[in-house]
Amino acid sequence: MGAAGSKLEKALGDQFPEGERYFGFENFGNTCYCNSVLQALYFCVPFREQLLEYYTSNKSVADAEENLMTCLADLFSQISSQKKKTGVIAPKRFVQRLKKQNELFRSYMHQDAHEFLNYLLNEVVDILEKEAKATKTEHETSSSSSPEKIANGLKVPQANGVVHKEPIVTWVHNIFQGILTNETRCLRCETVTARDETFLDLSLDIEQNSSITSCLKNFSSTETLHAEDKFFCDKCCSLQEAQKRMKIKKPPHILVIHLKRFKYIEQLGRYKKLSYRVVFPLELKLSNTVEPYADVEYSLFAVVVHVGSGPNHGHYVSLVKSHNHWLFFDDENVEMIEESAVQTFFGSSQEYSSNTDHGYILFYESLGPTK
Amino acid sequence: MMNTSNGMISAPSSSSSPAANPQSPGIKTYFKTPEGKYKLHYEKTHSSGLLHYAHGKTVTQVTLAQLKERAAPSTPTGTSSGYSTSSGFRSATARLLGTGNGSRALSFVGGNGGGKSVSTSSRISGSFAPSNSSTSMTNTNFDGKGTYLVFNVSDAIFICDLNSQDKDPVKSIHFSNSNPMCHAFDPDAKDGHDLLIGLNSGDVYTVSLRQQLQDVSKKLVGALHYNKDGSVNNSRCTSISWVPGGDGAFVVAHADGNLYVYEKNKDGATESTFPAIRDPTQFSVDKAKYSKSNPVARWHICQGSVNSIAFSNDGAHLATVGRDGYLRIFDFLTQKLVCGGKSYYGALLCCSWSMDGKYILTGGEDDLVQVWSMDDRKVVAWGEGHNSWVSGVAFDSYWSSPNSDGSGEHVMYRFGSVGQDTQLLLWDLEMDEIVVPLRRAPGGSPTYSTGSSAHWDNVIPMGTLQPAPCKRDVPKLSPIIAHRVHTEPLSGLMFTQESVVTACREGHIKIWTRPSESETQSNSSEANPTSALLSTSFTKDNKASLSSKIIGGSTFKQ
Predict the structure, then answer these.
(1) Which residues contact B302 (CB under 8 A, 6 or more apart)?
(2) Which fold has domain A2-366?
(3) Whole-angstrom distance, CA of residue B281 vs CA of residue B300
(4) How many of the other CB atoms lie within 10 Å of CB of B159?
């Protein structure tokens, strides 16, 4: 694989970004779902930086217990500290840990990359929260001061009276978390009930020949609750017809969009892959945000691509933008691609097509303030 | 001779009639508008079996090409040169929009040359009857006048007769070295070379369309070859245009953000060289080192691809749109930026001028149709309605407001857009509604919140580019109709005097005839019971002299 590596180096020439490493991942039997997501996360710069920071500050703790996050941090650090600029790394410890920890990923079956991403981020959040709680109780017993920032870049919410009740905000939250507000308007009394919920990624229903912009619009479109599905209005104290809509109250710094390409078809009694053509622009603004976030611009930096015609088999690869170059990661192989090649992963406007490489998870980074 | 060529091309699938429409399940063959029904009249396509996709997929662009009577090249007679493509409108400014000066009554269309009588009779039943006589009908005399659709698919250029019911091309030209990407036609080209073709490799050809039609081979004949093997620029040609009134000059835009100006009488064989681009982020114009070589000038527009270019009809202004999301308008002679601005987000894919040069439409990856005003030097409206990227925009220069009184006060524009959502949308732009409120003093308009409108209240200086406007600042338009016209994402749209032409990326083209409101006018001529449906095709030549006034045209860029 050294030859492939040098090919990439040649392609980049003196434009090879200072300090950057492009390493493929070895596949341990259907672990491409894992490899593709890990590459996207590695090139999610704020995530990488925080994780490496965590790694350096925790290295001194000799008896640190191994967990999924330490394995991930270890892997990222391994990549970034490579002497060579390109090559292949075996994410063996990480994959072993993953399989040990969750039986879902233990088999050699084809796994869902989105499920993996979700699991991984939540796992990291859990670990950070646990550590934060431990540090917090330590702090609270030693001194009652409430520092704004404590070790590991962990941020405690601003003191506005309810500090202790607020959930812990980890750096994963700071990077990926957004807030949705679910507005329900009772059609009888017109009272609007708003309920906020947080998200680390958005799962969007998709339609044939549509765009991400349009899918986001549908996501926030008004839905009427009626018949079996009425809304219990607190003011009317009864079930009423209501209108419901989802808006983005706080857009995340890194917006992860999951396209629901795997759909359960009742008639078939199984999942089916939707190969719909869904175009995603390299820059995006959210149409369904509340002020003052209306015109926050995002830039696409990674795409996890599912290759194959069905949900239970196939392959995952990823496209990554690093220092204004687009790279194609396919397990151990890394290649440079043209920006315009991203368009070949939109999907197909015909149901049966030879093109089965479809964008599945999109990673956008905010170019403006989202805080 | 022609039959041989036609027979070869049309053999595999010529029997399918447009109405049968086997590739478009669930797609209606008409759509309703306030002025009436547009009906699917003809479809044009290609035999994809003949294509080999070795060069990868291309996106189909369509050019309308009007061949005039060869005998009288100097007199702009009755041939409705109105629906030529982007160029050659020397008297274009003479036409005022919305004055309703009889454009409705002008429904003449030149049937194609010698084949006219044959095709006319078959046209009546043509839409619905299975065509069993295609060979006899394609016996078109290419020496005569005619209207053709030129479109590219994969490694080939196809040429169809617009006014024939034949679905298959009358001619195909295959390129062995690279794929054709864009093309343009000038009906008034003086030395016969009227068709421009730009390739994926950067190569550019000029040819005579008539000569191609007369030749039986599948090769390009009699071509002048520029930028051979991409010697000057080897990035993809994205858009190509004749300079209106430019005496054979033409402009080619490339995927690397450059565009080149060629002059027809200069040598294409001598290689032009240009100095290195000093600052890729800045606009710059450089002349070729040798004055006798072609291209004569390089304009570095932007970083990333220039996706589409369009000249205003008088040739004074050149609009470009590109990957960076900016619309730029240049004064072509002085080579200076006049104005421009950014999309809401994402690349811009297409642009088109209004006939009077006052407005420019753009479409792009933000799913919006943008209306840019040259007077205000800013965006004056966003058309919201597409569910995917907007890939083609055009003003309907043949449309006149039903209630226009000719005073010019209530000028209303009709325009259309097509998108990758497979939809055709039509829009009305009412000046009273859109532009006037925007010019009011701050707070004067009840529709806009005060204090928001830095974008609207400032006078925008010449030569500057505007940033993306805020969403709440831009008035929104809604389409008057939205119709799914193809099963595949669309790539192009144009208006002709009697129809709307839509094209999809894969190279299927549909021709929708306008509502038969003008049937009342055409009843005077040889009223045939069935002619009402297809009235526009039948009007007699004696009205043709009037139609020369209407120098229309739709720029048609992907």
Answers:
(1) B257, B283, B320, B322, B323, B324, B326, B328
(2) Cathepsin B; Chain A (3.90.70)
(3) 9
(4) 22
Q: Which of residues 291-310 of A touch B (CB under 8 A)?
A: 294-295, 297
CB-based contact B471 A209, cutoff 8 Å: no
The string of pLDDT tens digits covering residues A29-38 is 889 999 999 9
Does residue B552 fall inside a structural domain? no
- Predicted confidence at residue B128, as pLDDT, reads 37
d(CA A254, CA A166): 22
Of A137-141, A241-245, A361-365, B161-165, which one has max mean pLDDT?
A361-365
Catalytic residue among A173, A306, A315, A358: A315
β-sheet bridge partners, residue A210:
A278
The domain of B310 spans 32-46+57-449+485-547
pLDDT at res. B115: 35
Which residues are paired to B448 by β-bridges? none
Q: Tell me, yes or no, if A277 comes closer than 8 A to chain B by beta carbon.
A: yes
Give domain limits for chain A. Answer: 2-366
Looking up tokens 């009317």 gives: A236
B15 falls within a domain:
no
> Are residues B366 and A295, on separate chains, in Cβ contact within 8 Å?
no
Pick from B304, B421, B470: CB nearest A210: B421
Question: What pLDDT, in 10s, does the model give residues B496-545?
Answer: 999 999 999 989 999 999 998 554 344 333 333 333 333 333 333 333 33
Q: How many domains does chain B have?
A: 1
Nearest to A294 among B346, B366, B471 (CB): B471
Q: Which of B366, B422, B470 sits opposite A209 (nearest CB)?
A: B422
Whether B323 is covered by a domain: the verdict is yes
- A154-166 per-position pLDDT tens digit: 444 444 444 445 6
